[in-house]
Design brief:
Blueprint: E1 2-3, E2 9-19, E3 25-28, E4 34-37, E5 45-53, E6 57-67, H1 93-112, E7 134-140, H2 147-151, E8 161-166, E9 169-175, H3 186-199, E10 214-221, E11 227-233, H4 238-251, E12 257-262, E13 276-280, E14 283-288, E15 291-296, H5 305-319, E16 326-330, H6 336-342, E17 347-352, H7 355-367, E18 373-377, H8 380-383, H9 386-392, E19 397-400, H10 409-418, E20 422-427, H11 430-440, E21 444-452, E22 462-469
Parallel strand pairs: 4-6, 11-12, 16-17, 16-19, 17-18, 19-20
Antiparallel strand pairs: 1-2, 2-3, 2-5, 3-4, 5-6, 7-8, 7-10, 8-9, 10-11, 12-13, 14-15, 20-22, 21-22
The protein binds S-adenosylmethionine (SAM).
Residues 300, 302, 331-333, 336-337, 352-354, 357, 379-380, 401-403, 428 line the site of S-adenosylmethionine.
Keywords: Methyltransferase, S-adenosyl-L-methionine, Transferase
Family: Belongs to the class I-like SAM-binding methyltransferase superfamily. RNA M5U methyltransferase family.
GO molecular function: methyltransferase activity
């Protein structure tokens, strides 16, 4: 162990032991404390320089590799290491799935403390790159510089960037020239927007002063070939805005939905903003098993469309429908699961908090000629009450797909009260899922579990559980 500056310690020959939370790996320091190290793979043996010391742990970075893990591969992305996006790109996909599966198992065991059946094998994503249908990039006049750039005394001519936030640096944007997450023309459109803006002196957002023209760029693609581009502006400058939008339209005639927002709020979320359609339609269409779903600028749609299809097939299979059941689809979003299972059910009731999503759900059901689905808006813990059940009937099967926080305890209590034969619980956070399963344990037995990977190269994992009445 050597010492550099006061708090910077160098630990030598440290074996990386595990893949930890948020995609950062874990090792043990000679004093027994945990060290969190990014950009290393379990099995690597490294020297670590710490940059943060806490009571229970250190945070550090690998400064020298003595041995490379057998699970290590060369990242495909030129931005790996600076970009916070795909932290596991340096690990084989097989090993990524191993850690995802283990995280689900550990959460259900340690937090849920429930009896579990053997897991069905985690379902990997066929596409390990270019699987995302939605990307959001930020403009900034404060580009993140690499250490080499800072060290070299070269003058920086242009500090504009269009890309991703550097983790924990709210005002610094990593300029992205090639991202392997969304199919083309995603890269071409983003790079064209940047080049055109630079060539025409369009001002990139200044995050400290809150000024400039260009704020964010959102790109949505669909398996139907339709493309949505939404540019968020800060300044309300019609001439410059149309200069850019007209250029994009001419350069990429394949864009089917060109939209914009002028947002002068402190934050850049568009959910409370008016979206203006500039050219084309204000939505794009996605297709799944013959069903069409319209996606507008504000809609939630599962980000990996191909794998969403697999997730929904597993959900439908777990639901064990015969054609007669009354099914509730809680947290239905735009009603995708509800419509996906509708032909195997008697009737489906979808419930969701976002009114626009429910409008989409109704529109989509009409487009798909589905007549046995009904959709209702409201906060689940308020809407999903005894009067609602009395009005719509006691469900045989409940499918629930809550956000990361899991279900409100009143919703869990209502599930126990209604006592459907089966509950299919789809979750993007197995820790909160485990908490909810523990609450249900006295009344429901977990009979099937299947993790599904929607996000290769990241530590995120989805999990589907079937609960059957005891
Ligand atoms: C993980 S998404 C599931 C969407 C949908 N099942 C799908 O596959 O597209 C969770 C959904 O829950 C909704 N939601 C979040 N909190 C809610 C609440 N308290 N009450 C009702 N819906 C809520 C969100 O708006 C979102 O659409």
């Amino acid at each position: 162990m050597g010492r550099k500056r006061r708090e910077e310690i160098i630990f030598e020959n440290i074996e990386v032991l595990d893949a930890g939370a948020r995609g950062v790996s874990v090792a043990k320091a000679p004093d027994g404390k945990v060290i969190f190290i990014p950009n290393v793979v379990p099995g690597d043996v490294v020297d670590v320089q710490t940059f943060k010391k806490r009571k229970a742990y250190y945070e550090g970075k690998a400064t020298k590799f003595h041995e490379y893990s057998e699970h290590r591969i060369t990242p495909v992305c030129q931005h790996f290491g600076s970009c916070g996006g795909c932290k596991w790109q340096n690990m084989t996909y097989e090993r990524q799935l191993f850690y995802k599966n283990r995280e689900v198992y550990n959460n259900l065991k340690r937090i849920g403390k429930i009896e579990l059946p053997d897991f069905e094998p985690i379902l990997g994503s066929e596409k390990q790159f270019f699987y995302r249908n939605k990307m959001e990039f930020s403009f900034s006049n404060s580009r993140w510089m690499t250490e080499e750039e800072i060290q070299s005394d070269k003058e920086i001519e242009n500090s504009n960037a269009l890309g991703f936030h550097i983790p924990r640096m709210w005002d610094k944007i990593l300029d992205i020239t090639h991202c392997s997450l969304q199919e083309d023309p995603s890269n071409a459109i983003r790079n064209e927007v940047r080049d055109f803006a630079n060539a025409n002196g369009l001002a990139f957002f200044n995050p400290r002063e809150h000024s400039g023209l260009l704020r964010t760029l959102m790109l949505r693609t669909a398996s139907t070939g339709e493309i949505m581009v939404l540019i968020q502006f800060y300044d309300d400058d019609k001439e410059k805005r149309e200069l850019l939008l007209n250029h994009l339209q001419a350069k990429f005639p394949e864009i089917t939905s060109l939209q914009y927002v002028v947002n002068q709020k402190a934050n850049d979320t568009i959910y409370d903003q008016d979206v203006t359609l500039y050219k084309g339609r204000d939505y794009i269409l996605e297709e799944m098993e013959g069903l069409h779903f319209s996606i507008n600028a504000k809609s939630f749609y599962q980000t990996n469309s191909a794998q969403a299809y697999e997730l929904y097939k597993i959900t439908r299979d777990f639901a064990g429908l015969t054609g007669n059941e009354l099914v509730y689809d809680l947290y239905t979003g735009t009603g995708t699961i509800a419509q996906f299972v509708a032909k195997k059910a008697g009737k489906v009731i979808g419930v969701e908090a976002v009114p626009e999503a429910i409008e989409d759900a109704k529109e989509n059901a009409k487009r798909n000629n589905i007549t046995n689905c009904e959709f209702f808006v409201g906060d689940m813990k308020v809407v999903f009450n005894d009067a609602f059940i009395a009005a719509h009937g006691k469900p045989d099967v409940i499918i629930t797909d809550p956000p990361r926080d899991g279900m409100h305890k009143d919703v869990v209590a209502q599930l126990i009260n209604i006592a459907p034969k089966r509950i299919v619980y789809v979750s993007c956070n197995s820790a909160t899922q485990a908490r909810d399963l523990a609450l249900l344990d006295e009344h429901y037995k977990v009979t099937r579990v299947r993790p599904v990977d929607m996000f290769p190269q990241t530590h995120h994992v989805e999990n589907v559980v079937l609960l059957e009445k005891r």
